[in-house]
C-alpha cells in the first residue's frame, strides 16, 4: 500500500513511525513532514519516508499529489484540513482518505454545534448557553456567579477558552471575544459553560461510523511550567495509562459519553470515521464533556502509538471501511511517557535555527523514541524550527521506569534555550 500522511508535528511523526512498521506499506510520503519524519524507513522494504513540500491546508495540491502517485490511503493528522473539508474533497474524487468529513469534524470546528448536539442527545456536559449578543451573554454569566468558561465557537489554535472566576472576569472575556473580536470570525458566536470542578481526563476512540473503540487513558500537561503554572501550550508532555482510573472505570466513562454520542450521530446521519477525542471532567455528579476534538491528540499520540501492538494500517483501514467491530486492538501493558522539549519562550516568542545535539546518543537508548515536532535540517545538523521541538518518549513495565527512561533521554539532548517540564507524570506517581 502507498500511504500519504498529512501534517508536520510530533503527532504526525508518531503516526508515520507506527504506520511504517506495517508490512502492508510499500511507499510513504508525508506532506509537509519534518526532519525526523524524513529519517524514518519502512519495515517492509527499508525505503525512506519521503517528505513533500505541500502544506497541510493546500487541499488542491494534496489531492493532485494523491491522484498522481495513486496513493491507497491518505491519513490526516491536524484539525484544520478536516475542518476545511479535505475528506469530502478526496471522497468526491474517489481517493481513499482517513478522517472525519467536514460535517463530522464540526465536533471540533464548532463548539456551539457540539454543545447543541450534546444537549439534544443526552451526552453529559456542563450547563451552558450559546450567544452572539454580549448583553444576553453577560446576563447568563451573571446567573452563574461569573464562575464559567467563555469559549470562542470556532478553531482558535487552542487559545479560545477563557476561564473566569467572577462576573467582572466573565464580562472581560465576553468583551474580548465577542465585542473586540480577539479570535476574529471564530469568536462571533461564543459558548459559556458553568465552571466544572473535578479531575480532567481525555479519551480517544477510533470510530467507523457505527462502532467506537476506546483507547487506554492518558493525561496531558497543558501549562508551560512545572506545577501546572505558566501559559497554556499545545501540550508539554503526557503519559499513559493514568493510575486514578481503572480500565473498567474508563470503559464506563467511555460508555456514558460515547454511547449517547454514537446514538446521536446515527439519529443525525453524521458518519464519523476517525478519532473522537472528548475532554472530560470527572465531577461529583459523574463525567461531563468539556469539548470534543476530532483527531489524534498531540502529544497523546506519541504515548498511545508506543503502546499499540496492532498494525495501525489495519485499524485505520477498518475505520474507513466500517469494519472496526471485527478488529481487535492489542495494547502493550507497558506505561509510556512523553516529555516535550520546547524552544525557550514558547508559547510566546522564541528563536529558531538552534542546533540540536545528542540525538544519536538518545537514539541508542532502549525502548525510547525521540519524535520530532519543530525540526529542520541545516546541512549535517538538525536545527529547531518550531515552538515544540521534540517529544522524547520512553516505555517500560512501570510508569516510574518509563518516566526515568524518558528523562534520561532528555538529558542527552541539548539546544540553546531548551525548555521542558521536569514533572511530567509526577502527580501520577505521588498518588
Ligand atoms: P477546551 O478547549 O474547551 O477543552 O478548554 C480548555 C481547557 O479549559 C480545558 O482543558 C479545561 O482545563 C478548561 N475548561 C474548559 N471548560 C471548562 C469548564 N466548563 N469548567 C472548568 N474548566 C474548563
Report on this structure.
The relative contact order is 0.13. The protein has 431 residues and is α+β, with helices and mostly antiparallel strands. It contains 14 helices and 24 strands. Strand 14 (223-225) and strand 15 form a beta hairpin. Helices cover 32% and strands 27% of the residues. It has a 5-stranded parallel sheet. Residues 126, 149, 151, 161, 163, 193, 195-196, 200, 279, 290-291 line the site of adenosine monophosphate.
Briefly summarize what is shown:
By secondary structure, this protein is of the alpha+beta class.
How many DSSP H or I helices? 14
Oligomer description? single chain
User: What is the overall silhouette?
Assistant: globular
Helical content band: 25-40%
Taking pLDDT < 50 over at least 5 consecutive residues as the criterion, the unreliable ranges are none
Beta fraction: 25-35%
Number of strands: 24
- The Cα radius of gyration reads 21 Å
Largest beta-sheet details: 5 strands, parallel
Which compounds are bound in this model? adenosine monophosphate
| Average pLDDT number | 96
Give me the secondary-structure category: alpha+beta
Strand order of the largest sheet: 3-2-1-4-5
Amino acid at each position: 500500500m502507498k500511504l500519504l500522511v498529512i501534517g508536520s508535528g510530533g503527532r504526525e511523526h508518531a503516526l508515520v513511525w507506527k504506520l511504517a512498521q506495517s508490512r502492508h506499506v510499500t511507499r510513504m510520503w508525508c506532506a509537509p513532514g519534518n526532519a525526523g519524519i524524513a529519517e524514518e524507513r519502512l519495515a517492509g522494504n527499508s525505503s525512506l519516508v519521503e517528505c513533500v513540500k505541500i502544506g497541510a491546508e493546500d487541499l488542491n495540491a494534496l489531492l493532485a499529489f494523491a491522484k498522481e502517485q495513486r496513493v491507497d490511503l491518505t491519513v490526516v493528522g491536524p484539525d484544520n484540513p478536516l475542518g476545511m473539508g479535505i475528506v469530502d474533497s478526496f471522497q468526491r474524487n474517489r481517493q481513499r482518505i482517513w478522517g472525519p468529513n467536514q460535517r463530522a469534524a464540526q465536533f471540533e470546528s464548532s463548539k456551539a454545534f457540539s454543545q447543541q448536539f450534546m444537549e439534544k442527545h443526552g451526552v453529559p456536559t456542563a450547563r451552558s448557553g450559546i450567544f452572539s449578543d454580549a448583553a444576553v451573554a453577560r446576563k447568563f454569566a451573571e446567573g452563574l456567579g461569573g464562575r464559567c468558561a467563555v469559549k470562542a465557537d470556532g478553531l482558535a489554535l487552542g487559545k479560545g477558552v477563557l476561564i473566569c472566576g467572577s462576573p467582572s472576569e466573565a464580562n472581560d472575556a465576553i468583551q474580548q471575544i465577542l465585542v473586540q473580536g480577539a479570535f476574529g470570525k471564530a469568536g462571533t458566536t461564543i459558548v459559556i459553560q458553568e465552571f466544572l470542578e473535578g479531575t480532567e481526563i481525555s479519551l480517544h476512540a477510533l470510530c467507523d461510523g457505527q462502532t467506537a473503540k476506546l483507547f487506554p487513558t492518558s493525561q496531558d500537561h497543558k501549562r508551560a511550567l512545572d506545577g501546572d503554572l505558566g501559559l497554556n501550550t499545545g501540550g508539554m508532555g503526557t503519559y499513559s495509562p493514568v493510575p486514578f482510573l481503572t480500565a473498567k472505570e474508563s470503559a464506563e466513562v467511555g460508555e456514558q459519553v460515547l454511547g449517547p454520542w454514537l446514538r446521536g450521530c446515527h439519529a443525525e446521519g453524521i458518519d464519523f470515521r476517525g478519532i473522537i477525542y472528548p475532554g472530560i471532567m470527572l465531577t461529583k455528579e459523574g463525567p461531563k464533556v468539556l469539548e470534543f476534538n476530532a483527531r489524534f491528540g498531540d502529544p497523546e499520540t506519541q504515548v498511545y502509538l508506543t503502546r499499540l501492538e496492532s498494525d495501525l494500517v489495519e485499524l485505520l483501514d477498518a475505520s474507513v471501511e466500517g469494519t472496526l467491530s471485527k478488529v481487535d486492538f492489542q495494547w502493550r501493558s507497558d506505561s509510556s511517557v512523553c516529555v516535550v522539549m520546547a524552544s525557550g519562550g514558547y508559547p510566546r516568542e522564541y528563536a529558531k535555527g538552534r542546533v540540536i545535539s545528542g540525538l544519536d546518543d538518545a537514539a541508542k537508548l532502549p525502548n525510547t523514541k525521540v519524535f520530532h515536532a519543530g525540526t529542520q535540517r541545516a546541512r549535517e545538523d538538525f536545527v529547531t524550527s518550531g515552538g515544540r521541538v521534540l517529544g522524547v518518549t520512553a516505555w517500560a513495565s512501570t510508569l516510574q521506569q518509563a518516566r526515568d527512561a524518558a528523562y534520561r533521554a532528555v538529558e542527552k539532548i541539548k539546544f540553546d534555550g531548551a525548555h521542558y517540564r521536569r514533572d511530567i507524570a509526577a502527580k501520577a506517581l505521588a498518588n
